[in-house]
Amino acid sequence: MRAFIQMIPGGVPAVIGLVLACLFFSMIPGRPQMWLYPLVRQAMQLKIDYQTKDMLAKETPHFIIKYTENDADMVNMVAEAAEAAYEPVTAALNYAPGGRALILVYSDRQAMKKAYGWAGDASAMGFYWGGVIQILSPKAWMKNSQSTNEFIATGPIAHEYTHLVLDHLAKGNYSRWFTEGLAQYVEYKANGYEWVTVDNRLTGKIYTMDEMDADFDELPNQSLAYRQSLAAVRYIAEVHGDAKLNQVLNYLKAGVKVDRAIEKTLRMDYATYETMVNLWAKGNMKQYSKNAN
Ligand SMILES: [Zn+2]
Q1: What sequence ranges are listed for the domain Peptidase MA-like (predicted)?
Q2: 164 to each of 96, 110, 179, how far by Cα in Å?
Q3: N or C: which end of the chain has fewer CB within 10 A?
């Protein structure tokens, strides 16, 4: 034993360090970075909270909404939509994050665009970043900005809140397509909303899962990439059952990567899953048609 230790550079302290490191990492569920991730997110959240300390704030049971004077007449509607999203989102993911989620309301597109390094789609009504839901004021995009039902059904809150809850549940262990597919699945289930355009029919040329995994945000036809991500999640929930979708989420929570989590849950390899999703989507998902849209 002594001879063996002497052979290791650093000797006894190095071995003790190695043993402690092994013990330390074996105590942490999942990958070590999953342990650090919530702390980083919390720090970003605190920073955003501090940077927006001069904004007005409204608290609801599960949310804190920050807004400017300009949107004072909108905040009750945003509060109602946020609370309306709470139950369907936490039920679908079978997970409820502790504390109140922060929602920032930007009064116009310009303010939202330059906020926090966001470089997303200019037409988007909201995004999830830094542990915070960031939305465009309903005044900036809704025809009838006083219709709470319209805001609940077509607004971004259920979608962005799903991103937040998944982020808390999986501690960053998910792919871009998976979180977009899940967010659309929940808003589809809760509000019947689907993003169907002339450019995202699933019957023509579509992306491979390799392309979706590699660089989801850079795929040139984003409406198609989003549509396919919804198909990939809906296939799991509708063909195999919601319990299987929850099983995938449990694997993500435990640190298993998305592709392996799906393979283990559905007991099929990733290539077969891709084939099955595409076949199912062609026959079962709504496709754009001139008459229906
Ligand atoms: Zn999204």
Answers
A1: 154-278
A2: 10, 23, 10
A3: N
Q: Note down the domain range covering 47.
A: 30-172
CA 159 – ligand 1 centroid, Å: 6
Q: Is 145 found in the same domain as 221?
A: no
Q: Is the pTM of this model over 0.90?
A: no
Q: Which of 118, 148, 172 is the last residue of a domain?
A: 172
**Distance in Å, CA 177 to ligand 1 centroid:** 9
Same domain for 114 and 163, yes or no, is: yes
Q: Give the distance (Å) from ligand 1 centre to CA of residue 178.
A: 10
User: Does 274 score more than 60 pLDDT?
Assistant: yes
Strands (E), the chain: 56-59, 63-67, 101-106, 126-129, 132-136
Count of domains forming the chain: 2
Residue 289, pLDDT score: 84
The CA 164 to ligand 1 mean position distance, Å, reads 10
Q: Tell me phi and psi for residue 89, to 5 degrees.
A: -70, -50
